Amino acid sequence: MSIRTLFLGLLLFSFSTSLFSSEKTKIILFAGQSNCRGKGDFSKLTANDKAILAKAQKQITLALFEHGKKTLKPLDCFKAAPGDTKKYGPEWFFGPEMFMGMELSKQWPNQKFLFIKHAVGGSSLHAAWNINWSADIAKGTPDERRPRLYYTWIDYVKEVLATLDMSKYEIVGMVWVQGESDNPGMKKGPKYEYSQNYKKNLTTLINQVRSDLKQPQLPFFCLQIGKLPMTEIAGEMENVYALRHDGKKGEGKYVYPMYPQSHYNYEGMKKIGTNFGELYIEKCRDLID
């Protein structure tokens, strides 16, 4: 989608917002790797899920940068790549923004939201998302072909924001779902180094986002991945929150099932999105009420 087309779409969205509510439209940002992109099976949504989504779609618009294409539409699923359909089965996927949006819609039925999302599968914070990215850092890693993702993401966010009358919009949070590419799984090897640097790299990323967007208190939400220090960072930085993760097998609110081939399935992604929504409502209610 061209920036002109995106601009016209956002103008219409802004106009409808002004008719719907006098409150500012709330913006939430999404970034990360494949589990932020999402592989939840959209075909498994229940009748109740679909009813809640239909209501949420009247309130939430998703600006999505996916595979080089920029789209703007009501909160919805996206087409799976043929290889993913062959591997996982579904033709249409959803990410954490879908059920998070549904939770926010239920909590604030008269509030408009804009979600802005860009995520790239298999990307590490060590290299691809590193604020201090360099060819030397990425050399010899899969991220050699994914350079400077943070800057691609922040440029897209700023591109969207530039089309808006910011007196009618407010950025109220960011969701980060990333870490599998930096999680060691063993005590030696390159990922061990990635994991050792993760705290510094994520802290730097959070501070950079807040600086670039001139939002020093921007709430930052992340999913706990393995033994990476998300929870530790959340305990040390203001307005940073780590979503609990009790694994992929068993029962419980914070257990997120996966396909046999990896990645969160319908149930796992639904629970992640729902839990993000509940965590946001718990921690940031004052930003919406």
UniProtKB/TrEMBL annotation:
Gene3D superfamilies: SGNH hydrolase
SUPFAM superfamilies (alphabetical): SGNH hydrolase (SSF52266)
Positions of transmembrane segments: none
Keywords: Hydrolase
Record's signal peptide: none
Positions of the Sialate O-acetylesterase domain: 25-237
Superkingdom: Bacteria
Official protein name in the record: Sialate O-acetylesterase
Species whose genome carries this gene: Lentisphaera profundi
